[in-house]
Each structure stands twice: as structure tokens, then as C-alpha cells.
Design goal:
heterodimer, A: alpha/beta, Rossmann fold, six-stranded mixed β-sheet, 8 helices, globular, B: mainly alpha, ABC transporter involved in vitamin B12 uptake, BtuC, 13 helices
Amino acid sequence: MSAPVIDVDDVWVRLRGQTVLEGVSLAIYPDDFYAIIGPNGGGKTTLLRVILGLLAPAAGEVRILGSTEAAMRKNLGYVPQFRTFDFEYPITVREMVLSGRLGHITRRPRRYDAEDHARAEEALETMRIADLADRQIRDLSGGEQQRAIIARALVGDPKVLLLDEPTVYVDAPTEAQFYGILDRLRDRMAIVLVTHDIGVLPDHVTRVACLNRHLYTHDTNEITPDMLEAAYHCPVDLIAHGVPHRVFPEHSRDDDDV
Amino acid sequence: MMTMFEVLGFEFFRNALVAGALASVACGIIGTYVVVRRMVSVSGGISHAAFGGIGLGYFLGIDPLIGAAGFTVATALGMGALQLRARQQMDTLIGAVWAAGMAIGILFVYLTPGFAPDLFSYLFGNILLVPRGDILLMTLLVVIIVAVVAFLYRELQAVTFDPDYATVMNLPVERLSLLLLVLIALTVVMLIRVVGIILVIALLTLPAAISRLYTTRIWSMMLGAVALGIIFTVAGIWLSYLANVPSGATIILVSTLVYAGALGVERLRQGD
């Protein structure tokens, strides 16, 4: 197996006196489509923020392509939780997508060159929003906005695409289309999908981990006894969301401190 | 009553128009960031903290605007540093800085022996009293603002649009945010002459907020805001001359009326 793209090594995070992540270790390989599931408040977004360099861990480190340098983050494509920024901001789709190139520009002051523009057009084509490039993001539909955000993540040629709860605010047809897009991207980069919705996972995912302060990893892509074991450590009602026909073992309080 | 043409013969009137135009350029550019980044209350805090500097200037016997510049820049940097660390109580913090700045100013003015000349004009502005030296200073500031924004347009856009993503892109987000706050502070000082501390926030935000309704890019929003600012200040100065009322308040009322009208029209259009 080749070297990991992202290597999370024994990361601990404390926020407002609470331990949010406890000794989390995780390696993402180039061909991974990795799903991290877990209850709300289990630390999923926190883990992503540590990987992205938005939050410094109390202990442990994150290596991107083997290095801890901040400049390595240009190899990450990030799709934040929907509506974490202001969609009223006066910016066109093309400008937003271009801004994803800023991490690659070494000249100061930063200017986009022909290559940056070419990459932006490519990303717009990939996401099939080239005809919307000159529209303002606030005038797009929810699904189009989401595709624009993914285009911004793709334009920097990432080695890994990190997605935080990408389907929470989109309707079912958009969601199906969205997973179609991820399938197309899989052979170009590793994908890390953070979600509390495991209804769609088995078809798309190569590996699953369950995060609830601890990370429980499982090298499988199906809901198997291993998977149930992972789910077992999370509140069952949240994990079962979107999987109404599957019965999970009842959550045991005694296992909270495992 | 003299016509506009005859009034233009007076240097103080020409200075007033030039000062208004310069202030409008600064407001249009910096106000655009204030509006899109939703920093209106932070800017209000910075502008009221300026009164502490005015008071200090009186107390030390130096130009109160120098005191104001020092005070606002220090306040902006302090608030910026706190904002990056303790996000939660930001509105309380702004309120405290807002009031403390005014309180410090009042104490210093009280402690200064004798009468504080022009105190009223710092609070409410008097564009007809802008001296020649200030015009030069304002020009310098406008040149700095235009140069910085032209140089760092993409960086400032990234930081004000999505600071998290800008961090992932390895931009110096903290330094750029502080730079923007310092530019706001300097713009505020510049506006004190024109509309006074109490009214600064309106001239800083209203032209940009109106321009926002009709533009799709940061740069076009800035251009629109600059044009609107010039129209408002010239109209305000002219109307205040005709009616023989304070210019600063007139400029602000003109801006507010146009803003209300623009919002109303926008509402009707969306109702269709």
C-alpha cells in the first residue's frame, strides 16, 4: 500500500474544558473513500478542523503527504458544512472557484495566471456549472451552490477531498446527483466524507470509521458485525437516521467510557 | 443668497467639497468590506473609542485628531486580537469599548484646564471647517487605502468571504484581518472632520449598503459606494448651506433617506 495522504497521529482536542477528541489516529490512503460517521457532537467537524489546520490540537499531529507544514494544506480540498459562510456576499461563481487556487500562488501580491483560469474553467466543467460562472452565488439554487463549493475545492488539484455533512440541506434528487459526482471523482483523489447519515454509505464507501470522542476504525465497506460494533459505541437513534429498516443493538450506557 | 457657483469662490467651500469627495472614496472602499463582512458594530465601537483619543489630544495639548488616530488604531488592533480568540462575547466587548472610549474622552476633556474649542465639531462634524493641512492628510490616506486594496484585492476578498477557507489556503488571515481593522480605524478618523464621531458609522456603511443592492462584485460595489458617497456629501453640503443647518447631520439624513427609498423600491420589485 502506498504512503498515506493524511496521517492523523494520536490527536487530542479539548474545547471549553471538554475533551472532544481523545487519542484519534487515522490514515487516509490515495484510493480511499473514507466515511467518518458518528453522532452530532461526537467530534466529526472538530477532527476535520484539526486536519485543515483551523484548530490546533492539544497533543498529537497531522501530517499531509508526510509533512506538518501549513503549506501542505493546498493538497486538501475542503467542502464545509453547507451555509457556514455568507451566501449574500457579492461574489460570482467564477471568482469563488478561482479563490481555491490561492494556496498554489507563490507570487506576491497574489495574481491569477492563465493556468489558474484554465483550472477554474475545468472545475466548473467538471461540476457542470460553467454556464453559471458569471452569476452571483446567492442567485443559485441549493444544489448549484453546493456544486460551486465542490468546484472551489477541486480547482486546487487536491490529493484528498474532505466533505463535512454535505447532504444535510439538499433534497433527495440533489443528493443522488451529488453521490454520482463523488463516484466520478473517486479515481482522481481520496475522499473523506463526514456524516451522520449512513443510509447511502455501503454503495460508495471503501472504509468506515465511527467517531464519538474516540475513533473506531474498520477496514470494511459494508454494514457488518464490525460496523455494528462501531455503531454500538454511538447513540443508536442518531446512527439509525436514514436506515429505518435496519435494527441496531440497543445502546449500552456501560460502554460510554470504552 | 448666493448661487452654488458664487459660493465655490470661497476656499472653505471648495475645501469642504474636496474633503467630502476624499471621505467618500475612503468610505466607499472600506465601507464595502464593513458591510459584506458584517463589521458594522465593530466599526461603531472603533469610531466611538475615537472620542477617548480626542479627549487625550486636548489633555496633552496636541491635535485631537492625532490622539484619535492613535486611539482608534490601538482599539482596532485590540478588538481584532480579541475577536480572533474569544468569538462568543464579541457584541458585549464592542459595547464596552464603545462606552469606555466615550467615558475616557469625557474625563480627559474635564481634566483639561480651560475651554475645549471645537469639541462639538468632533462629535457632529463640520466639513466647512476642514483646514488645508487636513486635506493633504486625507489625500495621503486615500492613496494608501486605494493602494492597499488594489494590491491585496484577492486576499481581502478571500478573508472577508470565507476566512476558514482562506486559512486552509495558507493566507495570513490574522494579519489581513488586522490590516482591514486598521484601515477602518484610519477611515473613521478621516470621517470625524466630515460628519463627526456620532455619525461616522452611517457614512461608512450606507453608501456601501445601497450599492450592494445593485452590484455583483466587490469592486463594482466599491465604485458604486464611492459615487453615492460623493453625491450624498455634495448634496448634503449644498442643502445644509441652503437651509443654514449643520452639514454633517444633513449628509447623514440624505444618505438615510436614499437608503430607505432603495430598500423600499427593492421590496416592491421582489414583491412582483
